[in-house]
Amino acid sequence: MKKLLGSLLACALLGACNDSTTASGLSAAHHDGYFAVVSTNYTGATTISLLGKEGDVVHAEWVGSKTQDANLRIPLADDVVLPSTSYSRRYLTTIERGLGVVTRFDIDAGKVLGQLRTDESVATDKAAFHSNPQDVYYVSETSAWVSRWAGNPDKAAKASELGTDLIEFDPSTMKRKGRRIDLSQYTTVIEEITYDDKFNPIGMQKSPAYARPTALVPAGDFVVVGLVRATDAFNYAPGMVAVVDPKTGKVSDAVELTGASNCGEVKPVLNQKSQVLVACIGAWGDGGAAAGLFKLAVSSTGQATVVSSFLVADHKDAADTNANIVSLGGDLVVAVAAGSLDAKMKVSVPDAVYSVDLATGKQTKLYASQGAYALGVPAYDAESGVLLVPDAGDVSTPLYGVERFIVDKSGSIEKDVFLKVAPTTTLAAREVHAL
Prior knowledge:
This protein is mainly β.
């Protein structure tokens, strides 16, 4: 097998995009793609590459911010991410969080199927309500749900524009349907420190920690919704996820994740259709005090229970593995521990990727990047044993691709090599998703 490697770069330090997508627009990719990679500088330049089963590049820049297509009314530019799960290898969905746009592509035919605005505000009106969509889950060809992080400050707005919810749309028409699942009941009030204009603490105040729904991942007939539960100053209420029934459009359960907070990331558990993984980041700079990983099982009635967990604070000298997770099956999880920069923006601690056994608490370091905030969202294909992790490298030695690891049948993980994903750009790979 070819060896592959790659890496990322902090968005402020990335160069311009040299996207070479032609004016003819999209090309039919048939079923060559097994992974999709988002490379971006977070300032308006994005490209999405398609990789084969072993991580080989089959379309270096299949679609991007410079793609010309009459049906792409709003270009892929502003904070583009992909859904947590894929409905079919034939289709690709992008979410532009800043603009509030969901776009669906037919990879096999090489065409844009349609675009959906997730709120009615003018995209360029900075003062207006913008819903900040986070994830999309497809129930069928005529029903899908999108999570909306933001709440509308105008409480007199019509229900469809209130936010802090999931809204349904029809993928066949890319039009909104009438149903909405309101998650504002999981907003709570917490105490937080207030500061003066020189950032000196001056007291305490009570502030709403908004539910802020994010990831949408199926568990049996239900969908688990990650909830960040953050104030406007990004202080956090206790961690929680909600469980919804996408067919009835109702909440079936909500579970507090004791000892953790900021639990927005959710991923499927390999070969366990009723289970999910949840990553809780905790607060910025808390050293893992409220960080952890959880495996949840959802019953046939939509009730969720914690099956196993790993709280960083419970393990002496443990790495703060709190984000960018993927299941390798059973209790084995791959997760990233973010590094840090010093006052001069030099790397003091680099990012590292670990395997974590939720049953035993054992962490095994797989790889350390040269940079901080460099390792992105990984993906794993169990059939080929290929694990791909984006890596931006360091400012002085930026990388533009992904690191490949090989996972054997015993669960042993071997680091492979570097793969340049979009070599004609200066865009860092930020996330990989299995199609």
